[in-house]
Each structure stands twice: as C-alpha cells, then as structure tokens.
Amino acid sequence: MLRKILLYSFLALAISSVAQVPAGYYNSANGLTGEQLRAALHNIIKGHTSISYAQLWNAFWSTDNKGNGVVWDMYSDIPGGTPPYTFQMVTDQCGNDGCNAEGQCYNREHSWPQSWFNKQSVPRTDLHHIFPTDCHVNHDRSNYPYGEVRSGTTFQNGSKLGSCKTSGYSGTVFEPIDEYKGDIARAFFYMSVRYYSEDASWKSSDMTNKSEIKPWALAMLLRWNQQDPVSQKEIDRNNAIYRDYQHNRNPFIDHPEYADMIWNPNWSVNTLPEALSLIVCPNPVRPGETLYLNG
User: What does pTM read for this prediction?
Assistant: First the structure.
C-alpha cells in the first residue's frame, strides 16, 4: 500500500513538473472523486479561448510538429521506424480532396466526430481533440467509434477498421495503434468533462450519449489510459494549447489518474496498476528528446 502511494505521488509530481502546470491550477479539484471531481474540472477548463476553424492549420505548427515541419500524424506514423510517407506542414494540407489513397495529404481529424456534437462551433475547433491525420484514413474512419478490431482493413501503420471485438459492442470501429490509444482515451475524457452540462443539443452515437461515454467504451478507454501512459508528445501539445491558443489544459494529461477517480467506482490508491511504473506503449520521441518515466 505504501509503495503504491509513493509511486502515485512520484508519477503525479513527475508529470506535473514536466507539464508546467500553473501553480494552483487544480486546487479546487483536490480531495474530490466521481461527479464532484468531474464538475470541478469542468469549471476549471470551461470558457476557453476559442480559435477559428482556419486557425487550426497554424496551431498544428506548434501542437503537432514532429520537427522540421513534419506532421505528427497518429493515423499514419510508424513509431520507432521509417514511415511509408510523411507530410509537410502547409505543403501537404488538404480539405476533403485527395482522400483516394494513403499518403496524399493530411487534414483535420475530430477524434470526437462533429456529428456527435451537432457541429457546434466551440467543440468544432477545440484543439484538445483535433489532430492532423492522413486524409484517406480520416475519411475511412468517418464517424465510427474507436474500438478493438476483430477483422477488417489494416492501414499502412497498423491502424484498423472493422468489426469490434471489445466486450459490449460488435459494430464497425476504428482502432489506432497501441502507441496512441492513451492519447485518444485522454482526448475523450477531456471532451466528456469540458462539455459536461453544455451538451443539450449534442447527439448520441454508438460510443457516446451526448457528452457521456457509454459503459462499453468507457471500460476500454480506462484500460487504454493505463496501458499507454502519458507521453512527452502529449505534454508538449498540452502546454502549447494552454500557452498559445485556448488557455485551458487537458486535466487527464496532467493527471491521468483523474479518469479512474471519476469513472471507476472501485477506484482507490490501492487499485493503482503496477503497470504505471513501466513504459508500456511509449510514443516515439523526437531526435535528441528525453523519454520521461510517464511515457
């Protein structure tokens, strides 16, 4: 028990120190769990500065620049190896054209699809869930839920689209590679908290009920959050969004334990997984970059 408490404290301190969380930013959430914690976090991050849809392209320069203007594309990047193709910022950007095959251009992927929030303007440009991705893969993902694929299409980097094998759902899903499953999970937790109580006009999907994540998907995302710890890529992105654009943070990058504290009814310090002390599915790092303990 004591070892787990010390591990939890160390990881929280390590993430916070690297993430440059402003002093006192989460003070109002201290000591809370469940819906009280969710509401407190919502109040901390709501009312962010909203950028325009066109400004997303410029924001990607600081949020998703792998280096030398190379786009960090979670749908086509191959961590630890040579990608079959890379995209250059601006030069290779596109709208909905050029989506006939992989490797032609990149566009703006709403991990929480626009149709699910009825294309409302604020979530439509919320960088915490929008990523530059291969246009073709983005097009094929469409507005399908995320899940774990039993059988179907496999894209060049290993992402998949097909029938779901995750317990509780059997429809078509899109599965990112392991290195980015935690990134997706924490983006979904952010959306569920940021728009908590602001979702009256949102629609439901096979994965969500307005801003609520359905039980089958929530169980999977909580598992992804643990299996793929926070990476330096996420930390840098969170800092850039807070500093340069929206002036709010993704709490689940700063404190990934918040997810279990809100949605896992059996959560306690004693239930922290031993896997948190390991680098399970680390994201790739830029040349010369340090890989931190948290991923």
Answer: 0.87
- Round to the nearest angstrom and report the end-to-end CA distance of the chain: 23
Residue 174's H or E segment, with its range, is: strand 172-175
Could you tell me the sign of the dihedral formed by the alpha carbons of 159, 163, 165, 167, in that order? positive
The closest of 48, 179, 186, 44 to 112, measured between CA atoms, is: 186
Q: Distance between CA 113 and CA 242 in Å, rounded?
A: 22
170-174: average pLDDT: 97
What are the two backbone dihedrals, phi and then psi, of residue 66, each rounded to the nearest 5 degrees?
A: -75, -15
Chain mean position to CA 186: 4
Question: What are the tens digits of pLDDT across the range 219-264?
Answer: 999 999 999 999 999 999 999 999 999 999 999 999 999 999 999 9
- Report the distance separating Cα 235 and Cα 244, nearest Å: 14
Q: Which two tokens stand for residue 134?
A: 């291969």
- How far is CA 179 from its chain centroid? 11
Q: Which residues pair with 280 in a beta bridge?
A: none
